[in-house]
Design brief:
The chain has five helices and seven strands; from the N terminus they run βββααβαβαββα. The protein has 156 residues and is an alpha/beta fold.
Length: 156
């Protein structure tokens, strides 16, 4: 069952680029912006993560922690993070646990790849309630970053 706005956000425990286990609960007391993305080193994903990096102060000023999640290995994400100077955590959902909980996995993506994350954006408030969700079917599209920021602004 996919995550639902107004309900408790599905919790996850995923590996970051430094091989630490990071849980959604680790960010209690902060709003959390979750950016699922299909694959590191692809054009649109790189642009999305770099744009988010460049606008990170906007999110920080709204008491929001941003995390990027893909099904890539943590080692791949570490190199992607290093090359693109990404300054927020990237988490590996290699086992597709979070993707299933949030309902964002493709049955089949390009080249017949299965279980890749759809480009998706979620906002979880500081009490753990899901306040915004956008799941894009077309990986070539960008999330509505203005809607994310408006949601965060409304959370205070």
């Amino acid at each position: 069952m996919a995550a639902k706005i107004g309900h408790k956000a599905p919790v996850f425990k995923l590996v970051d680029t430094d091989r630490n286990i990071i849980a959604l609960d680790d960010f209690a007391g902060k709003n959390v912006v979750i950016l699922f993305f299909p694959a590191a080193f692809t054009g649109v994903c790189t642009k999305e993560m770099c744009r988010t990096r460049d606008e990170l102060s906007d999110y920080n000023n709204m008491n929001a922690q941003v995390v990027g999640i893909s099904v890539d290995l943590p080692f791949t994400l570490a190199k992607f993070r290093e090359i693109n100077k990404i300054t927020f955590p990237l988490l590996s959902d290699f086992n597709k646990q979070a993707g299933k909980q949030y309902g964002v996995l493709y049955d089949e993506w390009i080249l017949g790849l299965k279980g890749v994350a759809k480009r998706s954006t979620f906002v979880v408030d500081k009490t753990g309630i899901l306040r915004h969700a956008e799941i894009l079917e077309d990986a070539g599209n960008f999330p509505d970053f203005d809607a994310v920021k408006n949601c965060l602004a409304g959370l205070g």
